[in-house]
From TrEMBL:
Statement: the UniProt record of this protein carries the keyword Phosphoprotein: no
Subunit structure: Homodimer.
Native species: Brevibacillus reuszeri
Descriptive protein name: Adenosylmethionine-8-amino-7-oxononanoate aminotransferase
Chain positions recorded as substrate binding sites: Y150, K282, G317, R412
Binding site residues for pyridoxal 5'-phosphate: G117, A118, D253, H318, S319
Amino acid sequence: MLNNHDELAAKNKQFLWHPFTQMKDYLAEDPLIIARGEGVKLYDVNGRAYYDGFSSVWLNVHGHNVPQLNEAITRQLGQVAHSTLLGMANVPSILLAEQLVRIAPTGLTKVFYSDNGATAVEIALKMAFQYWQNRGIAGKHSFITMNNAYHGDTIGATSVGAIPLYHQVYKPLLFSPHIIPYPYPYRDGGEKAAVENTLERLEKLLDQHSHEIAAMIVEPVVQGAGGMIIMPDGCLKKIAEMLQAYDVLLIADEVATGFGRTGKMFACEHDEVVPDIMAVAKGITGGYLPVAATLVKEKIYDAFYADYEEQKTFFHGHSFTGNPLGCAVALANLRLMEERGLVADVAEKAEALEGLLAPLAEQPHVGEIRSKGLMAGIELVRDKQTKESYAWNDRIGVRVCQLAREKGLLTRPLGNVIVLIPPLASTIEELGEMVQILSESIWEVTTQKAVGRP
Ligand SMILES: *Cc1c(COP(=O)(O)O)cnc(C)c1O
């Protein structure tokens, strides 16, 4: 196998276009080319080890190259790699659906598969839209989303996205949801004021427009790509109650938060909320293969269940819906999570992680440290007193993560927020080493005299 760094780097440059990447910047740097993984570390083609500090974009659960997960795939491979769910079934997709319903908030009873977070969201939106029409209720055509929401990159998911940098350019192509603020206590006057503002805005909107709103989509408890912003306890519950009172569906986007990431199997459980529709993806296969699912309450499924002539069918599907290899490894992932008591373990390690991160608050440019479970963000500010942000083109987050990589930790920033989303199986010792690297990197980059100053 070809693993000569220089040769691969040349071909990478010649043939690849990377996601969420300005290729002009990327090509100016020596590329990192991963050859293999083991536990919570990835190794490049030169044999150098790095902590996978962002779980290969928020996916990884048990670490890399896990014998039980590898074995689940090879065992299934000996049976069949793929067979469709269009009008027929396959063994692992049935067994996984049973397990998903078992672990999901009670009341989510049917599973519709796809293969990534954006499509799971896309499906949720289309289901919510068609649900009202199938029930003969006209005019419920719009959606509510939240400031700085991220739900994926397909057109529907982009429409309910609200991060200007990613979404503005496509505006003329998209449908326009109502947007209410996600509570952001650090910048909105503390928890109480932030939550009140969100709830007041929602109530007013529902009061005037609920007759034309199909559903609200929410990143429950942690708004991920928007900057690891944490919704205070009780807020999601209030949102859910309000939506129910106004007959608007709740779609929970658990793509980032699902499967133990926040210290509960699903983040909705923190507030004992059962959404009408729930989209899951990232952690479902332990970070091994692309599988996603949209879970619904029976009432949603029922609205599509009708005589053929009524044309209430959900006309949606993908080539790889219910892929047996993916479902087999997802089953093994869930089994391993259960055997190891991983979710309870995450809740415990979350406290340790908070303790490890706490000293960073002393640094002159650390504005706020936020974490829920093993999902953490460190917001860097130019001025701690005024909370003045670094300018976008200071690239402060990018520079911290570049330095962290040199020191042996991989992660990606969200603007000025440094992300730490380690594999759930990381030990406290490993978490300590990861935090140490981040701490040094933040210190060295932010205390350089020249930072962002002309
Ligand atoms: C990552 C993410 C998505 C999109 O998932 P993909 O698998 O990348 O399409 C959607 N919603 C949230 C909250 C996410 O974090």
